[in-house]
Specification:
The protein is an alpha+beta fold. It folds into 2 domains: 6-211, H-NOX domain (Alpha-Beta Complex), CATH 3.90.1520; 243-328, Arc Repressor Mutant, subunit A (Orthogonal Bundle). Helices cover 56% and strands 9% of the residues. The chain has helices at 10-20, 26-30, 37-40, 49-62, 66-73, 80-87, 92-101, 103-106, 135-154, 174-180, 209-241, 249-256, 261-270, 275-293, 298-304, 310-321, 325-328, and strands at 6-7, 47-48, 111-117, 120-126, 162-164, 184-185, 191-196. Strands 3-4-7-5-6 form a 5-stranded mixed beta sheet. A two-stranded antiparallel ribbon has the order 1-2. Strand 5 (162-164), helix 10 and strand 6 (184-185) form a beta-alpha-beta unit. Helix 1 packs parallel to helix 4 (49-62) and helix 15 packs across helix 16 (310-321). Keywords: DNA-binding, Transcription, Transcription regulation. One of its GO terms (molecular function) is transcription cis-regulatory region binding. Residues 234-330 form the HTH araC/xylS-type domain. InterPro entries: AraC-type_N (IPR032687), Homeodomain-like_sf (IPR009057), HTH_AraC (IPR018060).
């Protein structure tokens, strides 16, 4: 399945690199994601977050603590122009505020914020809305990578005062101490780590005003392009959602987007999907909603999703979910 949000290949590339040392072929980790070797060779490739999460789910199935390991390898240099803009900022606080300005370039699945608590400052990751089964993995990846970014910016470890996590302590919780080196609190009210707020004024060792200005401007332009593509995909999704019972087809959708079918196909390909894949995703999302309501008979759900026969819907749903519609119902 696909998703409206776009991201870079940073995390996927790191997953492949991490497991390569164990001799695991990349095909096993990329299975079901729709990402191919040609995509990995292009620095400007953008994928959907669901493609990224498919690869991560494959990794978690092999090693449950892989989120912490991946996070510790997500150095600031992995973020391209944004990474250089952060490194050349005047102070640590300037760099963090710049990072928060461009969450799309960070590729985060969370709402990031800095929250004052007396003399402490909490770097918080909240509002997670992706696959619930991967929430703990993503929390681990996010906070561990943010800690590494902070260390890279300062060219020394940022001393932490505490770290807290909404989930229960996993059986590998001893590994958390390797990442955060501070008092740990599980089943907390937020996912965050704290440090002395005086660090915000710390000058960065690689600060360079000229380079920073150039990189910050390039980040601004890249963010506009990135968010523009997100908005474009969002518009397509809105059009299809309104027409699930009578999908317009590629030609019809292109006309509604005021472009040619060839242009639409090319743009969708660049986004890592096709018309049919996007339509299937939206049908699957709506099917799950209607099945959860329980009062809808399956033949009516099939009609609402544009299937001419109930059997065709059943076959499609099994392909999407692995179970029949009747088995999916609560």
């Amino acid at each position: 399945m696909l998703h409206a949000h776009l991201t870079t290949l940073n995390a996927v590339s790191l997953v492949l690199k991490t497991f390569k040392t164990e001799g695991l072929p990349s095909e096993a980790l990329l299975a079901g994601s729709g990402i191919c070797a040609a995509d990995l060779s292009r620095a400007d490739t953008r994928i959907t977050t669901n493609q990224e999460m498919r690869v991560c789910a494959n990794a978690v199935a092999l090693r449950r603590d892989v989120g912490l390991e991946l996070g510790q390898q997500m150095h600031v240099s992995a973020y391209g122009m944004l990474g250089y803009a952060l490194l050349t900022s005047a102070t640590f606080g300037d760099a963090l505020r710049l990072a928060l300005r461009y969450p799309a370039l960070l590729g985060t699945l969370f709402e990031l914020s800095l929250e004052e608590d007396g003399e402490r400052l909490w770097f918080t990751a909240s509002d997670y809305r992706e696959n619930p089964a991967l929430e703990m993995f993503n929390v681990e990846l996010c906070l561990a990578s943010l800690k590494v970014i902070c260390d890279d910016l300062l060219s020394q470890p940022l001393p932490l005062l505490a770290a807290r996590f909404e989930h229960s302590a996993p059986d590998y919780h001893a590994r958390y101490s390797e990442c955060f080196a501070c008092p740990l609190h599980f089943e907390a009210s937020a996912n965050a780590f704290a440090f002395d707020k005086r660090w915000l004024d710390q000058p960065l060792p690689l600060a360079d005003a000229v380079t920073h200005q150039a990189m910050a401007e390039r980040c601004r332009k890249q963010n506009l392009e990135f968010t523009g593509r997100q908005a474009w995909l969002g518009r397509i999704r809105q059009l299809l959602i309104a027409q699930l019972n009578a999908a317009p087809g590629l030609e019809g959708l292109a006309a509604q987007m005021n472009c040619s079918a060839r242009t639409l196909r090319r743009h969708l390909h660049d986004l890592g999907c096709s018309y049919q894949e996007l339509l299937d995703e939206l049908r699957f999302e709506r099917a799950k909603q209607l099945l959860a309501e329980d009062q809808w008979p399956i033949y009516r759900i099939a009609e609402q999703l544009g299937f001419s026969e109930t059997a065709s819907f059943r076959h499609a749903f099994v392909r999407w979910s692995g179970v029949a519609p009747s088995q999916f119902r609560p």
